[in-house]
Amino acid sequence: MKYDVIVIGMGPSSVFLAYELTKLNKAKNILLIEEGKEVENRSCPIEKAGKCVKCKPFCNITSGFSGAGAFSDGKLSLYNPEDDDIYVGGELHKYIGVQETKDLIDYTDKIYLDFGADKKLEGTEFKDEIKKYYDKAKKNGINLISIPIRHLGTEKSHELYVRIEKHLADNNVNMRFNCMVDDIIIENDKIKGVKIKDSNSVNDENAPLEEIYADNVVIAVGRKGANWLTDLCSKHNIKTEAGIVDIGIRYELPDEIMKDINKYMYEGKFIGHPYPFGDKVRTFCQNPSGFVAPEVYDNNLTLVNGHSYKDRKSTNTNLAILVSHHFNYPFNKPIEYGRNVAKNLNELGNGNVVVQRLGDIYRGKRTWQEEFENNEVVPTLKSAVAGDITFALGYRTMTDILEFIKQMDKVVEGFANPTNLLYGPEIKFYSNKVIIDKNLETNIKGLYSIGDGGGLTRGLMMASCSGVYLARILAEKI
Ligand SMILES: Cc1cc2nc3c(=O)[nH]c(=O)nc-3n(C[C@H](O)[C@H](O)[C@H](O)COP(=O)(O)OP(=O)(O)OC[C@H]3O[C@@H](n4cnc5c(N)ncnc54)[C@H](O)[C@@H]3O)c2cc1C
Questions:
Q1: Which of 89, 109, 130, 310 has the largest count of CB atoms under 10 Å?
Q2: Ligand 1 centroid to 74 CA: how many Å?
Q3: For residue 425, cis peptide bond before it (omega within 30 degrees of 0)
Q4: Rounded to the nearest 5°, which phi and psi values hold at 422?
Q5: Which residue has the least CA distance to atom 38 on ligand 1?
Q6: Whose CA is nearest to atom 19 of ligand 1?
Q7: 431 pLDDT band (50/70/90 cuts)?
């Protein structure tokens, strides 16, 4: 069977590529391949089981139609019209230009609205109050980025993607679930197709492979596929450059402390370069009245994330504090470094996320489960195991995080309260960055890379935009 286009993965980048091709009447002969399930069959058993059961063959949070977007908090990061750069969501604008990216965000946002996204925009109403926080942060060596956010909410994101999946099926987009792409077929530096196998055979190296052909293949495997993509690139000489890995923790503190930031911005993006290392440390993915959640990657690597519902609320806000680490010579394996950190922390937590009180880190002691009983902040992730994250996070990462928290306390009073919680590991894996041109094409003719996996984007909106952009290029070609 030969297709015009095969897309590997069905995260937002892939889904929006397919949507745009349906709009341009070019979707009939395309195939999307996903190792997880249809969105309506995805559910995370953690609520019922009380702990992460490590779904087989793949985690329902990170795999399946709409990828990591299905259970995400669904914060769509837009842009400020007056800004002359794009500050959030990765690097798409560096390839296609700032104005074109803004236009794409407007267009893609409209599609989200058409499929039922909340019309309300956060972070647009309280300009004066935001400016006061901006100035206060600046005085304390921290930069505050505030852009309009459209918050879908976890349960509403799920429903929205069900509607998009139905739309694609109704418009003859071919979708194969529970199949993973094992390898790609290249001849004379030109893409020819992919080799797939049943997802249940993920660990069976002798499982039969089916070959499917296409002149255009799009890699859209997200962070879930970053490890696979790194191996694929080195096997087939797909050009990459050393990427970064973001390592850190998920921080949980009372809504009360964060109430102004939550009200004025919904999500404040704070960036610092604390002493002595000067590494970039940033807050990311803030979830007012939210819940901390696990996500499971290859080989049962359990990481932490967070989200918030539209209707169901906790009394805590959670956000990531991430440190960007670059490696180049002689060690240039950011994914491997991140995986080792995660593995060590998972072992300390008996396969689970580890949680510790900030005050215990200052006191040089681990946290015990019973100490949460009288703690002001009660963990929203019940499966997290009390322990000591300082055993596994490197000195540099740990110092960066603690210094940043101290700095932030001067901006948001109570940010460094000893009762606040740190969960680890939170790690954002990007494969070594795939080198692509303005058409998002790799050095292999007909092989393209979009979304988070190849390091182009970071986040729902930009991943979706990269799909729309590539669809328009492919529509001209097929
Ligand atoms: C809990 C959580 C909350 C989040 N909250 C937000 C938020 O509020 N705002 C925001 O902007 N972003 C958020 N994100 C991040 C956001 O979900 C991602 O940036 C976005 O989904 C990236 O889209 P993508 O298409 O690049 O990849 P993904 O969504 O990761 O999709 C990739 C897909 O490819 C599949 N795949 C991988 N390898 C293969 C293979 N070999 N064969 C077949 N299929 C494969 C995977 O199963 C997956 O379904 C959140 C993520 C999580 C996990």
A1: 89
A2: 11
A3: yes
A4: -115, 125
A5: 225
A6: 459
A7: low
Q: What contacts 446, CB < 8 A, 6 or more positions away?
A: 190, 191, 214, 215, 216, 217
pLDDT tens per residue across span 342-368: 999 999 999 999 999 999 999 999 999
Q: Are 73 and 443 in contact (CB under 8 A)?
A: no
Q: How many CA atoms lie less than 13 Å away from 202 in the CB half-sphere?
A: 16
Is residue 94 within a helix (H) or strand (E), and if so which, with residue range? helix 92-96
For domain 1-117+152-241+433-478, the question of CATH label 3.10.290.10 is answered with no
Atom 2 (ligand 1) nearest CA? 72
User: Higher confidence at residue 243 or residue 260?
Assistant: 260
How many whole angstroms separate alpha carbon 294 and alpha carbon 246? Answer: 17
User: Which part of the chain is CATH 3.50.50.60?
Assistant: 1-117+152-241+433-478
pTM for this predicted structure: 0.90
pLDDT at residue 154 greater than cutoff 80? no
Choice from 151, 228, 235, 285 to test ligand 1 binding pocket (greatest atom count within 8 A of CB): 285
Q: Are 381 and 318 in contact (CB under 8 A)?
A: no
Give the CA distances from residue 211 to residues 5, 6, 181, 193, in Å, rounded to whole numbers and listed in that order.
14, 12, 10, 7
Percentage of the chain exceeding pLDDT 90: 81
Q: Nearest 5°: phi and psi at 167? A: -60, -45
Opening angle at CA 283, ends 282 and 288, nearest 5: 175
pLDDT at residue 335, rounded to an integer: 83
| Three-state secondary structure call for residue 30 | strand
Confidence of residue 225 (pLDDT cuts 50, 70, 90): very high
The residue among 6, 134, 34, 20 whose CA lies nearest residue 466 is: 20
Atom of ligand 1 nearest to the CA of 13: 25
Eight-class DSSP state of 454: T
